[in-house]
Amino acid sequence: MTEQRDRIARSMAEAAGSMCFRQAGAEWEHLRSVWRGHADAALVVIGRDVEHLRGRAEKAETAIARAESRLTVWEQRLPETVNLAPVIETIRRDLAIDGATGATDGR
Q1: Angle CA 75–80–84, to nearest 5
Q2: Residues 6+ away with beta carbon under 8 Å from 99
Q3: Which of 9, 42, 50, 99 is 20 to 30 Å apart from 69, CA to CA?
Q4: What's the pTM?
């Protein structure tokens, strides 16, 4: 985390025009610590955003698994006379579900 913190602090400082990370010497350490403090604040926000996105990704994965399951059941229940292949394959492709072959077997 310290490496990430320093990368963010350096990037923020340079974007603001500060040269404190390019200068040697203890006299620049105060400015570097200020930028590291800003980086710490940014990391808190980034951490919250990552957790939020992780939750959304888990919900999306659950929804896709549920859709795949329902799609399989739906496919099995329709009569033989219904040409399912284009519909099923389109849905599978849109949901990026494995097994999308593009085949048209008349079902």
Answers
A1: 45
A2: 92
A3: 50
A4: 0.57
